[in-house]
Write a structure and sequence with these properties.
By secondary structure, this protein is α/β, with parallel strands linked by helices. It has ten helices and 16 strands. The longest helix has 18 residues, at 36-53. The N and C termini lie far apart (63 Å). Residues 1-32, 45-61 and 119-123 have low confidence and may be disordered.
Amino acid sequence: MCVWGGGNYSILKVCGIVESYTSSCTTIELKRPLTMLQIDRVLLFVFVCVLFQTGTANPFGDFYHADFRCEDWLSYTTEDFVRMASNGFQIGGNMRTCRIFQGRPDQACRWYVKYNIHGYHMNEWTGLDSEGEPWGTGCCSSESNCATALGAGSWLKERHKDICCGPPGVCVPIVFVDRWTWGYPNVIPPTDTTPLNRKLDYYVIHHTATPECSTHSECMERVKSIQDNHMNKREMWDIGYNFLIGGSRSFVYEGRGWHNEGAHAKPYNDRSIGIAIIGDYRTTEPHDGIMDTLKELMKCGVERGIVKEDYALCGHLDLSATVCPGNSLLTLLGGDEFAEGHACVSP
């Protein structure tokens, strides 16, 4: 990393990564005001710093290691994980990253594995517990392993693929926002669940009949508000939908997910995935990005073997006495792009 200090002297420190996993730094002192020679030296050192970092900057000021790919996780060695996930680098995918942190010499856990959800609490890195779930201490699997960077790297490799790169079977190019993300910092679990134990026949499309959301933060607040309404006013176990789609970037927000029965369209809940588009679409249409994401999400369910290839695509009003999902959205669903081969036929 590059460090610039203040005061009467300015310190420029350039640190590279070496095989021992410690920082190797070169420091120069620059007395103000700078001479042209010193300015040239600053520019040279900044150039060297960029070469050392060998990473890709993200909007939050951290560096993803350029060598890392989620799909290659199993091929990496423990040493690879230490090299790519420490000393200012991070690894990950699908709006998640992981990093190995070094603790103080007087701490039992000298090395930690931390997890970060981008786009919401940004660089508020959170520890992982013994099962690899968020909100733990971050201390690796045993005190002896935590004494070394390699121990933490081994724990990262063995236990954290899903938490660092997203859940297995995530379909590209969809960006899934899981419950840990939109529920933060007060994640509310379901009070009960019913598993979906069969290949599903239907996609049922809803609108939330709320204002639309534009930014990621707005959408997460909207999803939390819907969950609160469903659980506390309508006395449901959880938010009723399996997934919600919203925002200018058309993210998919996880509700009950692929494997738990929703509460959105009786008596079809046990044979369907309920997808809600955030907004009110009685007279206005969702933007093209929303519809593209909806198409990809339905394709994802088929590719993962959860929904039948010849599924029926229904609006909520096709199955119940309601105006949901609104006539404008329903008209789009009835077009050839969506309905061809997937007409809504109720038993």
